[in-house]
Specification:
- The structure holds 2 protein chains of 2 kinds.
- By secondary structure, chain A is an alpha+beta fold.
- Chain A has 5 domains: 5-140, Up-down Bundle (Four Helix Bundle (Hemerythrin (Met), subunit A)); 157-269, 2-Layer Sandwich (Alpha-Beta Plaits), CATH 3.30.70; 305-361; 365-544, Heat Shock Protein 90, CATH 3.30.565; 549-700, OB fold (Dihydrolipoamide Acetyltransferase, E2P) (Beta Barrel).
- Chain A contains 22 helices and 22 strands.
- In chain A, the strands form 5 sheets. Chain A has a 6-stranded mixed β-sheet with strand order 14-18-19-17-16-15. In chain A, strands 6-8-9-11-10 form a 5-stranded mixed β-sheet.
- In chain A, a hairpin with a 2-residue loop joins strand 12 (549-557) and strand 13.
- Chain B is mainly beta.
- Chain B has one domain (6-167): OB fold (Dihydrolipoamide Acetyltransferase, E2P), CATH 2.40.50.180.
- Chain B has helices spanning 6-21, 80-83; strands at residues 27-33, 36-41, 45-50, 64-70, 73-79, 98-106, 109-117, 119-125, 131-132, 146-151, 156-160.
- The longest helix of chain B is centred in the N-terminal third of the chain and has 16 residues, at 6-21.
- The termini of chain B are far apart.
- Classes of the chains: A alpha+beta, B mainly beta.
- Chain A binds chain B through residues 560, 583-587, 598, 604-608, 646-648, 650-653, 655-658, 661, 663, 667-671, 681-684, 688, 691-692, 695, and chain B through 53-60, 66-69, 72-76, 111-113, 167, 169, 171-174, 176-181.
Chain lengths: 701, 181
């Protein structure tokens, strides 16, 4: 029985990334003055399962490197090594290094070992120094796998007695594969012990009745052998004995015990490590099974069983309602009408609930997106010489997985900006009478159908004069423009804008905030900044909870029904003559509360036949996109409803001014309008928009 | 031929599934446009439907009639008669037309679209030897869809290979630049 391990590779990668995240966050939480055993254990466990996994799947480079890391961790764990601040950094670097290696394996690139070797050397120095300092303390013989004093070359070989549990084959472990692995460590001879095999009538073909005596000649360490049996050790009798007495640090008493191949002994010896392995392994095996089922081709999602149970309950209800209706329909009389109505009401309720719950499956707590920031802030504050405290709030706020994946980069950008531009250096902060420790708060919460993410810093705030002068310098605004504070703050989101005095590797290249805004707008969201000079800035991101459903306003033009995303609508008005100005060149603008808004006739841009061609007869829907407002002429406003977004690219191609389609209650397709696209389609550029307002300003004056 | 009853459609759909079962054969579904018989590879055909109301796509090229709801999927409907510059056989109403739902290979994978024709005709077997290229057409715009000419005992069928050119980006924009003085 041989298993194709490559099918589990993706799972291993995902698990390892998770393990690395655990290590990382635990490392960042370490308080050097009072090291918490549990934290170290957590890091150790994560490192250990990565090592175990990579060994099993044949990623030798990762296993070797992680082994060194684990060794030092184990020393720390057993209080034989004192952890200092720079060790934390070393471990963090190793986490990065392992991540890179896994990444390389994942993408099939050959492993670049340069960094790993460097770090390995650093670890070896630490380990050697430690061994010299208190080598004696290792004599208890209970030390686990991977100790530096493990016999390296003292033994000529090992005698191994291995008697697995009967059901070893059912757990997917193949002794032959283990022996093959062992044979890579040295010259292996295998003698099967067949005493346990029952008579043929009693044999269960899926059980393993055999035991083996193995002799391994070579320079393998005990740790390496342990590793081979790692997955089965707690279900099997396993005795590993060195063939020759070992010289060196190992104590004699320990060896004596070892030379006696009793089945009880290894339990004693491997007690500590076994527990760890067992825990990690069991949970991992479970996960492997669970994840395999959910796994799809490109991505997987981990769903709480409570959510699944809810779904099953709801489907049950749905089935009951359905059979009730079916029963009712078989011999329907008009007396049963109230019953029918009741049944239909139930049906619609269940369907709605079901829909909500299915959507919930795609929801993940935002901590997935937040989790990378402690490390980022830790590293950046160091390189910038700033003291920063990061506060995460509302980590349990749930958000659609797709939105989460796509909000990550903009968030990183905003946090970097706050750190780099927002927060001042400690001296400056002290001079300004603030705590020298700066504070960045990430806050997430729900508001209506939206999720709000705020990045709050207590730094210097936006420097309005500098932004304005920079914007004038870059030709983004003219010196004669009168801009409100909000408008000035908004300038930072324009393409080609950066006030950073020097281009650093962190920010300041002038691409960024506009990309942030565009990314967020692609998710149907918005981003704003509020800032008080000297007190700090607040970036507020507003996102829809999901990309699959949209609150829409149905409108009609001629025979067609279109949908505006409700979030983009500012207001809808009926016009009268006085409000409409005809600017030379055939463009109508609407004057609304001292603002001039270009009028876009939907029938004209979409080339369809409307009921009303003139602005006076129809309705104007004022919508905003890309910070430009336009008034869209439509025939009628219909209703508001939630619509399920369907892709039009799937079977067609992108259409200008249309972001997607949906299917209405009557089965027809309706197009969802894309405001930014509509603005472009109508030829209203930012320049035009400004010109209209300028022209009318002068006209009015 | 242009008036297909529901039963006829069912019959053809049945034949279709039978024909698709045998993957070895080189079979073509043929249909009529302006009296001419055309054929498409039957393996690309998913189903045949009657006329259903569609939603117009703004500024789309003239052969793209709009979107239809194909059991929850949004699929474009192409009037193949426009591509070949022929008039609909029955000018009174489009509801007499038939829509062949088929998958078209594009750079971005398979796309499902419906093509509107006058009427569906039959399923033919063509051996490779019986298919000839059509050199005289190679210069025209329509030629890109023509794979060759298939001949049976008594007639000739124009065999088509539909491409993403059907929905290629050629939106028509009326001239309406906002110019502000």
């Amino acid at each position: 029985m041989s298993v194709d391990l490559s099918q589990f590779h993706q799972v291993f990668f995902e698990e390892s990334y998770e393990g690395l995240d655990v290590m990382e966050s635990a490392l960042l939480n370490i308080d050097i003055s009072a090291i918490d055993d549990e934290t170290i254990n957590e890091i150790f466990r994560a490192a250990h399962s990565i090592k175990g996994g990579s060994g099993t799947f044949g990623f030798k480079e990762i296993a070797d490197f992680t082994h060194v890391v684990e060794t030092l961790l184990d020393l720390i764990r057993s209080d034989q090594f004192e952890m200092k601040a720079d060790h934390v950094d070393l471990f963090l670097k190793s986490v990065d290094c392992i991540r890179t290696m896994i990444n390389q394996f994942e993408s099939g690139v050959s492993c670049d070992l340069e960094v790993a070797d460097e770090l390995k050397a650093a670890f070896t120095v630490l380990l050697d120094g430690e061994g010299a300092a208190d080598g004696d303390s290792n004599q208890d013989g209970l030390s686990s796998t991977g100790e530096p004093h493990d016999p390296q070359s003292g033994a000529d070989g090992w005698q191994i007695y291995f008697k697995p549990e009967l059901d070893i084959l059912r757990t997917g472990n193949d002794p032959v594969r283990m022996f093959r692995e062992l044979s890579e460590l040295g010259e292996l001879s295998v003698v099967a012990v067949t005493d346990g095999i029952p008579s043929i009538s009693d044999i269960d073909p899926e059980s393993c009745y055999m035991a083996w005596n193995l002799t391994l000649i070579g320079e393998a360490t005990e740790a390496q052998i342990d590793e081979v049996f790692e997955w089965v050790v707690d279900d099997s009798e396993l005795v590993i004995t060195p063939l020759m007495p070992i010289d060196g640090q190992e104590t004699n008493s320990n060896e004596d015990e070892l030379t006696a191949p009793t089945p009880i002994e290894p339990d004693e010896k491997d007690e500590i490590i076994d527990k760890e392995v067992a825990d990690v392994k069991q949970s991992e095996t479970k996960k492997l099974v669970a994840k395999k089922e959910v796994k799809t081709e490109s991505a997987s999602i981990r769903v709480g069983t409570d959510k699944i149970d809810d779904l099953i309950n709801m489907v049950g209800e749905l089935v009951i309602t359905q059979s009730m209706l079916e029963e009712l329909g078989k011999e329907f009389t008009i007396e049963n009408l109230p019953k029918l109505m009741e049944g239909l009401a139930q049906l619609s309720m269940h369907t709605r609930e079901l829909q909500e719950n299915v959507m919930r499956i795609r929801m993940l707590p935002i901590s997935f997106a937040f989790s990378r920031f402690p490390r980022l802030v830790h590293d950046m504050s160091k390189s910038l010489n700033k003291k920063v405290e990061l506060v995460l709030l509302g980590e349990q706020t749930e958000l659609d997985k797709t939105v989460m994946e796509r909000i990550g980069d903009p968030l990183v950008h905003l946090v970097r900006n706050s750190l780099d531009h927002g927060l001042e250096l400690p001296e400056q902060r002290l001079a300004a009478g603030k705590d020298e420790m700066g504070k960045i708060t990430l806050n997430a919460f729900h508001q209506g159908g939206n999720i709000i993410i705020q990045i709050i810093d207590d730094g210097a705030g936006l420097n309005k004069e500098r932004i304005l002068s920079k914007a004038i310098e870059n030709g983004l605004v003219s010196a004669s423009d009168h801009l409100s504070d909000d408008q000035i703050n908004d300038l930072i989101f324009l393409p080609g804008f950066s006030t950073a005095e020097a281009v650093t590797d962190i920010s300041g290249r002038g691409v960024g905030m506009d990309v942030v805004r565009r990314n967020i707008q692609e998710l149907n969201g918005s981003v704003e900044v509020e800032s008080t000079e000297g007190e700090g800035s607040v970036f507020t991101i507003r996102l829809p909870l999901t990309l699959a459903i949209l609150d829409g306003q149905l409108i009609s033009v001629g025979e067609q029904v279109y949908i505006f995303p409700l979030v983009s609508i500012v207001e809808s008005i009926q016009t009268h003559d006085q409000m409409i100005h005809r600017v030379s060149g055939g463009c109508d603008v609407l004057r609304l509360r001292n603002e001039y808004i270009p009028i876009v006739k939907l029938w004209d841009v979409f080339n369809i036949k409307p009921k009303h061609e003139t602005v006076e007869d129809g309705l104007l829907v004022i919508v905003e996109g890309d910070n430009i407002k336009i008034a869209v002429l439509v025939d009628d406003l219909l209703g508001q409803q939630q619509v399920v977004i369907k892709s039009i690219r799937e079977n067609y191609r992108p259409v200008h001014g249309v972001s997607g389609a949906t299917i209405l209650g009557n089965g027809t397709v309706s197009l969802i309008l894309d405001i930014s696209g509509l603005i472009k389609l109508a030829g209203v550029g930012r320049d035009t928009y400004k010109k209209i307002n300028d022209a009318n300003d002068t006209e009015a004056a | 031929m242009s008036n297909e009853s529901e039963n006829d459609l069912d019959k053809i759909n049945n034949e279709l599934s039978e024909a698709q079962a045998d993957e070895q054969s080189d079979q073509y579904l043929t249909f009529f446009m302006a009296g001419e018989e055309f054929g498409v590879d039957i393996l690309a055909v998913q189903e045949i439907r009657g006329w259903e109301p569609i939603t117009a796509i703004p500024n789309s090229p003239s052969q793209v009639l709009g979107f239809t709801n194909l059991r929850g999927t949004v699929a474009p409907i192409i009037d193949l008669r426009h591509c070949f510059g022929v008039e609909s056989a029955s000018n009174e109403s489009e509801s007499d037309s038939v829509v062949i739902i088929m998958s078209v290979m594009t750079e971005k994978g398979e796309k499902i679209m419906g093509i509107v024709v006058d009427a569906v005709s039959d399923v033919y077997n063509f051996a490779k030897a019986n298919i000839q290229p059509s050199p005289e057409l190679s210069q025209t715009k329509q030629a890109q869809y023509v794979k060759g000419l298939g001949s049976t005992k008594d007639k000739m069928v124009i065999l088509l290979e539909l491409t993403e050119q059907l929905i290629a980006e050629s939106d028509v924009f009326p001239d309406r630049q906002l110019s502000v003085g």
